[in-house]
Write a structure and sequence with these properties.
The complex is a heterodimer of chains A (110) and B (112).
Chain A (H helix, E strand, L loop, with lengths): L8 E5 L4 E6 L7 E8 L6 E6 L4 E2 L4 E4 L5 E6 L8 E9 L11 E6 L1
Parallel strand pairs in A: 1-9
Antiparallel strand pairs in A: 2-7, 3-4, 3-8, 5-6, 6-7, 8-9
Chain B lengths: L4 E3 L2 E4 L5 E6 L6 E7 L6 E7 L14 E5 L5 E5 L8 E8 L5 E3 L3 E5 L1
Parallel strand pairs in B: 2-10
Antiparallel strand pairs in B: 1-3, 3-7, 4-5, 4-8, 6-7, 8-9, 8-10
Classes of the chains: A mainly beta (110), B mainly beta (112).
Chain lengths: 110, 112
């Protein structure tokens, strides 16, 4: 049970911001939102995670709605190397498992 | 190295044979996960180790699958009597506690 819903694919022009949405309407108060990405033939790579507040790091920004039922991962200036499958995951603080689902396949177009 | 390493990177075996896949986690990481990813699919959780606690084996698909973690570090995933449907990429991840996971490059298993 992935507990998240993401569009199967998206395109983004190189240099533009890529905004990847995720719905997690059944999220509970003790569950974080995590984002990972998987570039072809590589293992998944951690991007960012958050609980309630918006988060930013060197890779991306995470915007979580006030009701926490959805979030958006923002890659501010997409490059061709950002082409990957992006996974949005919700997971309890004390949970063992990360349910990856099928993610969003982002293609950055030159 | 600084990251999670897995070996072998590729494994081709015949149906019915046993295989062992190895994972070397990042030093100091107490949590270790095994996943598998079939072609074009998302990641499927297999098993989770946390320190000296009993592992969470709830994702293992059958009793042909087992895993050990020796000394709280290296882990071995064993698949007995392999079947063609076992063909997949097997990914290992480690982390501190049960928080963020860092993945290895995976082992690509092909069962003929």
């Amino acid at each position: 049970d992935a507990k998240t819903t993401q569009p199967p694919s998206m395109d983004c022009a190189e240099g533009r911001a890529a905004n990847l949405p995720c719905n997690h309407s059944t999220i509970s108060g003790n569950e974080y939102v995590y984002w990972y990405r998987q570039i072809h033939s590589q293992g998944p790579q951690y991007i960012i995670h958050g609980l309630k507040n918006n988060e930013t790091n060197e890779m991306a920004s995470l915007i979580i709605t006030e009701d926490r039922k959805s979030s958006t991962l923002i890659l501010p200036h997409a490059t061709l190397r950002d082409t990957a499958v992006y996974y949005c995951i919700v997971r309890a603080i004390t949970g063992n498992q990360f349910y990856f689902g099928t993610g969003t396949s982002l293609t950055v177009i030159p | 190295g600084a990251g999670v390493s897995q070996s072998p990177s590729n494994k081709v075996t015949e149906k019915g044979k046993d295989v062992e896949l190895r994972c070397d986690p990042i030093s100091g990481h107490t949590a270790l996960y095994w996943y598998r990813q079939s072609l074009g699919q998302g990641l499927e959780f297999l098993i989770y180790f946390q320190g000296n606690s009993a592992p969470d084996k709830s994702g293992l698909p059958s009793d042909r699958f087992s895993a050990e973690r020796t000394g709280g570090s290296v882990s071995t995933l064993t698949i007995q009597r392999t079947q063609q449907e076992d063909s997949a990429v097997y990914l290992c991840a480690s982390g501190v506690g049960a928080k963020t996971q860092y993945f290895g490059p995976g082992t690509r298993l092909l069962v003929l």
